[in-house]
Each structure stands twice: as C-alpha cells, then as structure tokens.
C-alpha cells in the first residue's frame, strides 16, 4: 500500500463532523465501525476508541483549517505532535503479486490508535510530498469538508464535484441577477 493513501483516513475522519450543520457522524461505536470498515480497517472498538477518534478528528481539523489559512508552521507543529503521539512501525510487504511496498504494522494499544497512526503518517507523507498548502477546506459555503489537493496546478477549491457545481451555479445566478439589476438601472435612467 502506498503510504500517501493512508491520508484518506484523515480526510474521512475529519469529514465525519459538519461544523456548519453541527452534524456529527461519529458518536457511537457503530459509527466508528462504519468509518473504519470503509477504510479497510477493522478491530475491536470501544467507547474509548470513539472518544479518541473524536479528539484526533479535532486536531486533524485544526491542521486542515490552519494550513488552508496559510499557517503552515502551526499546521506542521500540530501534525508533528500527532506523529509523536502515534508512532508507526513500517514493514516491507509483498503480497498478492504486488511489488515490494511499505505497510504500517498494527500493534498499537487500541484500534483508534492504529487508525490514528496510519492517518497521521499518510497526512505527513502528503504534506511533505505535495506541500502543506495542499491541505484544503471546501470553499463552497456552507460546506467545511476537507480535502487534499492533488491537482497538477494546485487549483482545487472544493471537496467534491457536487460542491464545485453548486458554487458555480450560485456564482452564475449571482452574475445574471447583477446584470439584470444593472440593465434595469440603466433603462430607468
């Protein structure tokens, strides 16, 4: 598995909370199990794991928000703190006919800690390979979902095509309304 792919775990975890709507999709063990299973992770989960994931989610949100606002050093400091809190053990693996590649080995004290270690390592790989400024927050109001901009020209501003379309339609309607108002004002004069 490519280490950068573990960064998706950080994105998915942060996006379990919608700060605008105050919707939280990580309140129960079942919610945590659903999140982890979507990421191919498994293990025994407890309510303590849910709380640990929620705490991690808040710290990861800080990283994305701070990086998006231009506070690269602060974002790196928070990420470094998480890497220290959740150390990883890499192992070379070759399975299912694939080339040799790195995996992050289990052996953490909890399922949440194992998920955290992988998510933080993946985010660190992406931040160092692409740049910390590639960690973004969706610009389509009211969405606050996070993403990692992997575009070649550093142009991504939205978390999804849905948000991009919604923002573009809203901008088009605003331009049409403005043009209509300007036309009405000039004909009245």
UniProtKB/TrEMBL annotation:
Task: Please name the InterPro entries in this protein's record.
Answer: ABATE, ABATE_dom_sf, Znf_CGNR
Q: Using the record's annotation, list all stretches that form the Zinc finger CGNR domain.
A: 134-176
Stored Pfam families: ABATE, zf-CGNR
Superkingdom of the organism of origin: Bacteria
Q: Which SUPFAM superfamilies match?
A: Jann2411-like
This protein is called CGNR zinc finger domain-containing protein
Q: Which organism is it from?
A: Actinospica acidithermotolerans
Q: What is the lineage of its organism?
A: Bacteria, Bacillati, Actinomycetota, Actinomycetes, Catenulisporales
């Amino acid at each position: 598995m490519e280490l950068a792919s573990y960064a998706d775990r950080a994105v998915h975890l942060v996006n379990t909370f919608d700060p605008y709507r105050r919707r939280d999709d990580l309140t129960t063990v079942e919610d945590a199990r659903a999140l982890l299973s979507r990421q191919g992770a498994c293990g025994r989960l407890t309510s303590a794991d849910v709380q640990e994931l929620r705490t991690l989610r808040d710290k990861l949100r800080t990283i994305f928000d701070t990086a998006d606002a231009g506070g690269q050093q602060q974002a790196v400091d928070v990420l470094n703190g998480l890497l220290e809190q959740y150390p990883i053990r890499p192992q070379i693996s070759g399975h299912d006919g694939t080339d040799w590649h790195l995996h992050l080995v289990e052996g953490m004290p909890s399922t949440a800690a194992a998920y955290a270690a992988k998510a933080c390592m993946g985010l660190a790989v992406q931040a160092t390979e692409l740049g910390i400024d590639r960690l973004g927050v969706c610009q389509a109001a009211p969405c606050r979902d996070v993403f990692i901009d992997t575009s070649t020209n550093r142009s991504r501003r939205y978390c999804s095509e849905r948000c991009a379309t919604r923002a573009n339609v809203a901008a088009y309607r605003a331009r049409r309304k403005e043009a209509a108002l300007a036309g009405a004002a000039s004909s009245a004069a």
